[in-house]
Specification:
This protein is an alpha+beta fold and 368 residues long. The chain has helices at residues 9-49, 54-69, 73-90, 93-99, 104-145, 260-269, 275-302, 311-337, 343-367; strands at 150-151, 159-163, 170-174, 176-178, 183-192, 198-209, 213-222, 229-237. It folds into 2 domains: 9-147 and 277-367, no CATH class; 155-248, SH3 type barrels. It starts with 8 loop residues before the first helix and ends with a helix. The longest helix is centred in the middle third of the chain and has 42 residues, at 104-145. The model is unreliable at 147-159 and 243-249 (pLDDT under 50). Strands 1, 2, 3, 4, 5, 6, 7 and 8 form an 8-stranded antiparallel beta sheet that branches.
């Protein structure tokens, strides 16, 4: 049996550069479109809430951009890989490589390696950068437009946070937050004893999260059978810490990959739901493999020769397949967020299914 010839390193680097260039171009084009759309929204906000200098609006939009574009990588890998393979095919470079005895699996390895490395860099470097930029952008948004951007709830009843501390369990409600959830305003807290019986209600204008406790200001304390008592400040114990829980009241997507494991541990210790955090952690862990799955999906529709025609049909088929996968992944993610499926299964099942399906199709196309 004749073994396939190994892919020469020169050709491997050439193919990898093709993949990298097309993926980066696709990512930059999509990022520019998102930047323009968000800039228009920021200009609208500026017009409604007071005049803000144009350079400040642009700077704020740029800070928000990494958080919005972080999830474009998989789409960029899909479209970029289709473009790279079609370009190699159009110039008959794939035909020459195949004629040299190189199989499709071999010349796809550089593309898979590029996708995997980009996925790892996205998780370990780009994600923390996006989280930091998003936090700073929220601060500037509050400063420029004079309001809190991180509302706990859009409803009239507010959102409720159950926590635990040395003094027992308590339930907090707040109208809005600042400093990434470390400062609350319009606070109402209900305190319970070790047996779960109601002890007292606290109404405060503001609360700041410090090391091991909330510091409430301008507090009115109401206990059963007693007259309300007012205090200038009041300390409420908690297991939440400023270093680890600044984003627990915000969105999981705004938390750095490196902070998630410790934040999950602290959230569970404080008896908060960690499902959203675990789901986000699994999404980040799976991103390199998601990018590899997109390369395989692109290969199933892009390896046909230009001379045989039907290129437009192949591209449309690849895009439909990509959107179908993203729809399945989103449905699975929502099931995980609702607690109907374990976060790990919700994230990894669509990726495993995509890899198995695309590998099967490629085996059929290449080996019959």
């Amino acid at each position: 049996m004749r073994l396939p010839r190994p892919l020469p390193s020169t050709i491997g680097f050439y193919v990898a550069k093709r993949f990298l260039a097309m993926i980066v171009i696709t990512f930059l084009v999509c990022s520019f479109l998102i930047f323009v759309i968000d800039l228009v929204e920021m200009l609208r906000q500026s017009g409604k809430r007071g005049t803000v200098p144009g350079w400040k609006v642009i700077w704020l939009t740029l800070l928000r951009l990494p958080a919005y574009t972080e999830f474009l990588l998989a789409f960029g890998v899909l479209v970029g890989s289709i473009g790279a393979l079609l370009m190699l095919s159009r110039k008959s470079e794939l035909a020459v490589i195949r004629a040299a005895g190189v199989s499709a699996w071999q010349f796809l390895r550089p593309g898979l390696a590029v996708a995997f490395v980009l996925g790892v860099l996205s998780v370990t470097l780009y994600n923390p950068l996006a989280a930091s930029a998003r936090a700073y952008a929220d601060t500037l948004f509050n400063e420029y437009f004079g309001r809190e951007s991180n509302l706990l709830s859009a409803g009239q009843s507010g959102a409720w946070l159950r926590q635990d501390g040395i003094d027992g369990q308590s339930v907090l409600s707040a109208a809005a937050t600042a400093r990434n959830g470390m400062e609350l305003s319009g606070v109402t807290a209900f305190l319970f004893d070790a047996n779960g019986r109601f002890k007292e209600r606290l109404d405060a204008s503001k609360a700041n999260l410090l090391d091991g406790f909330w510091r409430l200001e301008n507090v009115t304390v109401v206990r059963p059978g007693e007259e309300p008592v007012k205090y200038g400040s009041f300390l409420l114990s908690t297991y939440l810490t400023p270093e680890r829980v600044s984003d627990t009241l915000g969105k999981a997507i705004a938390i750095s990959f490196w902070e998630l494991p410790a934040l999950i541990e602290v959230a569970e210790k404080a008896k908060l739901s960690s499902a959203a955090l675990r789901l986000q952690y699994e999404l980040l862990l799976s991103r390199p493999f998601l990018c590899m799955a997109m390369v395989l999906l692109a290969a199933t529709v892009s390896l046909k020769s230009f001379r045989s025609g039907g290129i437009q049909t192949m591209v449309v088929t690849g895009m439909i397949g990509g959107f179908g996968f993203f729809l399945l992944a989103e449905i699975s993610r929502q099931l995980g967020a609702a607690g109907l499926v374990a976060p790990r299964i919700a994230v990894w099942f669509p990726i495993a299914l995509a890899m198995i399906a695309t590998t099967t199709v490629l085996l059929h196309q290449e080996d019959g």
